[in-house]
Design a protein that fits this description.
The chain has about 375 residues and is an alpha/beta fold. The protein is about 40% helix and about 15% strand. The protein folds into three domains: about 120 residues, Rossmann fold (3-Layer(aba) Sandwich); about 90 residues, Rossmann fold; about 140 residues, Nitrogenase molybdenum iron protein domain (Rossmann fold, 3-Layer(aba) Sandwich). The strands form three sheets. It has a five-stranded parallel sheet, with helices on both faces. Strands 2-1-3-4 form a four-stranded parallel sheet, sandwiched between helices.
Length: about 375
């Protein structure tokens, strides 16, 4: 946690590791620790997780047999098991490798105090240790994490666009089968660059129209037999639709003054869309992860105090972010983008990536800014 931060609002490393591992449906994920840490993580990760639910006596007398029993119980249901030691076992210093050597378990030591969500996600990827199969056809999709409410929509949108170009989908990091990580394709596209796996050669990002054009131009040189013309046509059609709608809005309304709170890649994409198509003034960009990941001016917004200060200082009339920002300034027009978003259900697999992601973002902003409306992505 950054020095001086109080009341952090972004998931910890433990949740990031769980988001990475639980994306593989043939990998059983055990959180080794207390029920409180388990329920916190389960509330963030939309996938089945298991827990040893340690009690006080387990901490005092040892929880080895409880963990071994749960691993043995789950071993028949999954191709492999992963164990994430939570805070108490890590502080106590339990040595789990000898205890579980009979089960070929992945041990990802990322208790909550070791860092932020992205760091836990990357640590889990390091333990998985994916590899590239140079002979495998297709392209990998990267940057899918189940702490992101748009993860499934981003994956589906990436798959749709690749298939439109005649490109098979290879491995998805992280969604699918664990065994596919050991035969990834040599080329990768990124649905969320903040969560790069580093596997394969990156052809580019799927966030925003210009990035899409560049990425599919790159894919034409990487993938023999591919044809991106249909994708380029859809990008052009999407841009025309966005321009028409934004021009219609601007004929009746002033451009918004926006404060954007999200991870760096999402924040940068949305700031670019609003400035380009709505002539928006970007009052402030607050990032949950290091602002150095942004190529635009940004400040870290990792805790409640900083969030409140940035909103008061920037005086926006459009707020894009999470429930924390919305509660801090409930009278400002609001679009929900990032965790947490309380008091709403999201059943549809919406995207931020791809052309559908651009349309979704612009639609939500226009509806939020139109007098009398309130719309979340």
């Amino acid at each position: 946690m950054p020095e001086g931060c109080e009341n952090p609002v972004w998931p910890c490393a433990m949740a990031g590791a769980a988001a990475c591992l639980s994306g593989f449906h043939d990998l059983g994920v055990i959180l080794h620790g207390s029920s409180g840490c388990y329920y916190y993580t389960q509330s963030l990760v939309q996938a089945p997780l298991h827990c040893t639910t340690l009690a006080c006596e387990d901490v005092i007398f040892g929880a080895e047999e409880r963990l071994r029993a749960l691993v043995a119980e789950l071993a028949g249901s999954y191709a492999r098991i992963a164990v994430i030691p939570m805070c108490v076992p890590s502080i106590v210093g339990e040595d789990l490798a000898p205890l579980l050597e009979d089960y070929n378990v992945l041990i990802v030591d990322t208790p909550g105090f070791t860092g932020r969500m992205e760091e836990g996600y990357r640590r889990a990827m390091e333990v998985i240790a994916p590899s590239v199969d140079e002979s495998r056809a297709g392209v990998n999709i990267d940057g899918i994490a189940l702490t992101d409410r748009f993860a499934r929509g981003n994956r589906r949108e990436g798959e749709r666009l690749l298939r439109m170009a005649g490109i098979p989908v290879a491995t998805c990091f992280c969604s699918g089968r664990l065994e596919d990580t050991y035969r990834a394709a040599p080329v990768t596209v990124e649905a969320n660059p903040d969560l790069r796996s580093g596997v394969g050669t990156s052809a580019g990002s799927l966030l925003g129209l210009e990035n899409l054009r560049t990425t599919f131009h790159n894919l034409q040189s990487h993938c023999s037999g591919s044809d991106s013309d249909r994708v380029f046509c859809e990008i052009d059609e999407t841009e025309e639709s966005v321009v028409r709608s934004c021009d219609r809005y601007l004929r009746r309304n002033n451009p918004p003054r926006a404060a954007i709170f999200a991870t760096a890649a999402y924040a940068e994409m949305i700031a670019g869309l609003l400035a380009t198509y709505l002539d928006a003034e970007i009052a402030v960009v607050g990032t949950r992860n290091p602002p150095s990941l942004c190529s635009i001016p940004a400040r870290e917004a990792y805790d409640l105090g900083t969030i409140g200060d940035l909103i008061r200082e920037s005086e926006p009339d459009l707020l894009i972010g999470s429930s924390y920002e919305h509660v801090t300034a409930p009278r400002i027009r609001f679009v929900g983008l990032t965790y947490p978003l309380r008091g709403q259900y999201m059943l549809q697999n919406r995207a931020v990536a791809g052309t559908e992601g651009v349309l979704s973002v612009i639609e939500a902003v226009l509806n939020a800014c139109t007098p009398g409306n309130a719309q979340r992505i």
